[in-house]
Amino acid sequence: xxxxxxxxxxxxxxxxxxxxMIMKADTGLLTNILLGIVGAxxxxxxxxxxxxYAANTWVPQLxxxxxxxxxxIWGYRKLKS
Length: 81
Prior knowledge:
The structure is a single chain. By secondary structure, the protein is an all-alpha fold. The chain has helices at 5-22, 29-49, 58-80. Helix 1 crosses helix 3 and helix 2 crosses helix 3. Keywords: Cell membrane, Membrane, Transmembrane, Transmembrane helix. It is found in: Cell membrane. InterPro entries: Transgly_assoc.
């Protein structure tokens, strides 16, 4: 069923913000939302390939979003340097 559009934006924004704090990235609100949503989508896809499925509720998706966004920030920094 999923979280829905509004919930995904909220969870994505929160996940991106937490990831930017963890990674000490200076990103804005829109970037935080995008990082959180894209990070969650990418990491959910990777986990699904491994046979692991995160529940479609707030807390698991927030955790997946934080990890995914952190990986995206890390990858961007590696490509940039």
